[in-house]
Specification:
alpha/beta; 7-stranded mixed β-sheet; 4-stranded antiparallel β-sheet; 13 helices; 38% helix; 15% strand
């Protein structure tokens, strides 16, 4: 079955619901049992899914969990109320006091905050590593290194990691590999085919796709499913049924949306390469990107998120460019139908590597608007940038 078909079919069982195409939305907290025997049976450690209590899951959530796991290539999936909740739940499920974690230096900022605060307080040490380290990560492994966390491409700076090489080095030393798969989604990167043990994503982005729901997902192999599901339940992670329903609706159009995000993103990236104001475009699908060879080898496509480095220009000129944009909004999320742009500075959050770009960094998300209109919006923005820079010269 091809992925575009799998997106439509995975997890659905219409004839279990009177032939209705979409699964019903179960609003549940209390679940009643007809007898003491049934209550006692439901309270035993589950060997299969059972409707016991709203927080433990309902068929509404199970449909989406099964669909994500199938598309991503894993055996088991649990949903969390945000991408960050999925990251923290996965780390807490695997790590314990005295363990050592290797974390990519290009990771999502809140992941770093969690490592530097809560994990430190729990007696878990984190070492940040160069995202481009590849097989050389073996030199950073210790006897107590329990896990290696990857994110490819990296947040803000879009380095592509050699996941198979990292996974081989980690597994040879008994460590697990966790991967943040939000950028590519389960459609464009198959983590378990490349050695990943636990795949995490902010479903808020491309699975939901409409900027109206917070969602996280953790997908694992069968041997880790019980561990992750146990931690998930102990931490009380739960997603409301209406949010799950909206995420299911978004999931079914993932293929067509990502295809458009990819096409528009590449159109913008190539146009931006021609602009005199741009020093470099950070997009792994471009042939001259440093991570292009790895991206071409391991990925099945590119999403709409990428970055540009401007040539040195005053901060006020960047503000003049961004403040007047009509179609690009400024906001911290991405993956929805609307285009976004965000100024960013990786320097304060890098510790293993240095960010040496001379000019400002902008992160863009290509939405579903017409590319010509987006280019016109950026072109007008560059005119404002140049006017403001000239006025301050």
């Amino acid at each position: 079955m091809k992925d575009d078909t799998r997106i439509i079919a995975a997890g659905r069982q219409p004839h279990a619901h009177n032939g209705i195409v979409n699964p019903p939305v179960y609003h549940a907290s209390t679940v009643l049992f007809p007898s003491v025997q049934a209550l006692e049976q439901a309270s035993k450690p589950p060997t299969e899914r059972k409707v016991v209590y709203g927080r433990r899951g309902t068929p509404t959530a199970w449909v989406l969990e099964d669909a994500i796991a199938e598309l991503e290539g894993g055996d088991s999936c649990v949903l969390c109320p945000s991408g960050l909740a999925a990251i923290t739940t996965a780390l807490l499920a695997i790590l314990k006091a005295g363990d050592h974690l290797l974390m990519t230096d290009s990771t999502y900022g809140p992941t770093r905050t969690f490592c530097d605060t809560m994990l430190t307080g729990l007696g878990i040490e984190t070492t940040y590593y160069d995202p481009c380290i590849g097989a050389n990560i073996a030199g950073l492994m210790r006897g107590n290194t329990r896990a290696v966390f990857t994110e490819s491409p990296g947040s803000l700076t879009f380095e592509v990691q050699d996941i198979p090489a990292i996974a081989q080095a980690a597994h040879e030393r008994g460590a697990l590999v966790l991967h943040d798969n939000t950028w590519a989604s389960p459609l464009f990167f198959k983590p378990f085919e490349h050695g990943v043990d636990v795949s995490i994503q902010a479903g808020t982005k491309y699975i939901v796709g409409h900027s109206d729901v917070m969602l996280g997902a953790i997908t694992t192999r069968s041997d880790l499913g019980k561990t992750l599901r146990g931690a998930h339940g102990t931490l009380g992670m739960h997603v409301g049924p209406d949010d799950v329903y909206l995420a299911q609706r978004g999931f079914r159009t993932l293929g067509v949306r990502l295809g458009r995000h990819q096409e528009t993103g590449l159109t913008l990236a190539r146009w931006l390469q021609t602009r005199p104001e741009v020093a470099r475009v950070l997009h792994p699908a471009l042939p001259d990107d440093p991570g292009h060879a790895l991206w071409r080898r391991d990925f099945l496509g590119a999403s709409g998120l990428f970055g540009i480095i401007l040539k040195p220009v005053p901060k006020q000129a960047v503000a003049a460019m961004l403040d007047g944009l009509a179609l690009f909004g400024m906001g911290y999320s991405w993956g929805g139908y609307e285009s976004l742009i965000l100024p960013a500075d990786p320097r304060p959050i890098r510790t293993a590597t240095r960010w040496n770009a001379a000019g400002p960094l902008l992160r863009l998300h290509a939405g579903l608007e017409d590319p010509d209109d987006l280019i016109a919006d950026l072109e007008a923005g560059f005119a404002r940038l140049n006017a403001a820079a000239g006025a301050q010269a």
